[in-house]
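Priority: low. Protein: Glutathione transport system permease protein GsiC. Input follows.
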Amino acid sequence: MAAYVVRRLLQGVVVLFLISVITFLLINLAPGGPTSAVSLGRTAEEREAVLRQYGLDRPVLIRYFDWLGGVLRGDLGESYNQGLPVSSLLAQRMGNTLQLALTALTLTALLGVVLGVLSALHKNRWPDHLISSLATVGMSVPAFWLGIVAIIVFAVQLKWLPSSGIFTVGQEFSLADRLRHLAMPAGVLAFTLMPNVIRITRSALLEVLTSDYVRTARAKGLPERVVLLKHTFKNAMVPVIAILGLITTVLFSGSVVVESVFGWAGLGRLAIEAANGRDYPVILGVTLLVGAIVVVVNLLVDLLYAAVDPRISHE
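Result:
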């Protein structure tokens, strides 16, 4: 197992290296790159001074290896617009993204698995039809539209929840206030991602319920609860873990729309602000961080496979 983990981590390092090369070259060689952004609203002398300040007057490959050397030392560069270290900006936003992503993931996993199990156990009956209809609606509704509707209903009309932000400005930190701000963005993300878990759980459970060892367990007279928990549910979890791993990567890399709609100051919103402001060091930092998260999540998912299903071995 240790050798497998080391091998996967080395593969992850190679993946991150390729991501950094591609992203850096695309940013610096494509039209509208850093050198053109520097020229906006500046005289020729000011432009040359800024180019020298950020090292943009040197060849692209030299700049890349200088940047890579800084990354290996924990230095991701400095934001063009804010004048702050990129690492500190990422650290500020990472905690907010973790709160949103983990809350949405918890809701997605719990509700998705429970509803998927209910749908499978009541196949072709009204609970199954109701849950399938709910899943279809969740897959069809765009997250930005659902977010706007949620703001209109719960913030404007009912005034139950705040419309945006992470906390109430001017108020001391309280868990209740943070949860009120977290409810809508996490709920919208969970509602749009939960249908995938419902469908996978239902399909996996129905497949396992028709297997020979489940029929044998029932023929022995085991209680249905024991059959479901001991012989069925655990064996159906492998594809569910796979889809949850995919959803986790989406939550960290694809929650840009929801963060923008609800004014949630996370990594997604930071990436949008950096792209709009042509803050290329921040874009590079966000891309590299999200890539590292994806690598780690994929490794954890593979390890969970072996923990859930003893037939899977990484030796």
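The chain has a mean pLDDT of 83. The chain has 14 helices and no strands.
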